[in-house]
Amino acid sequence: MVYSVYNNEWLVCKVQENTPKVKSLYKALCLLDYFNSDHPERGIKELSDLSGMLKSSVYNILSTFQMCGFIEKDSSSGKYKLGKKILTLSNVLYSTDSAKAIIKPYMDKVAEECSETVFLAFPSGTDIIYVEGSYPPGVLYARSIVGVKAEMYCTGIGKAILAYSDEALIQMVVDKGLEPFTSFTLSDEKALREDLEKTRQRGYSIDNMEHEYGIRCVGVPLHNNSGHLMGALSISGPSLRVMDDKVVFFAEKLQEAANEIKGLLK
Amino acid sequence: MVYSVYNNEWLVCKVQENTPKVKSLYKALCLLDYFNSDHPERGIKELSDLSGMLKSSVYNILSTFQMCGFIEKDSSSGKYKLGKKILTLSNVLYSTDSAKAIIKPYMDKVAEECSETVFLAFPSGTDIIYVEGSYPPGVLYARSIVGVKAEMYCTGIGKAILAYSDEALIQMVVDKGLEPFTSFTLSDEKALREDLEKTRQRGYSIDNMEHEYGIRCVGVPLHNNSGHLMGALSISGPSLRVMDDKVVFFAEKLQEAANEIKGLLK
DNA sequence: CCTAGCTGTTCATTATTAATGAACTTAATT
DNA sequence: AATTAAGTTCATTAATAATGAACAGCTAGG
Question: Is the full-model pTM beyond 0.85?
Answer without folding.
Answer: yes
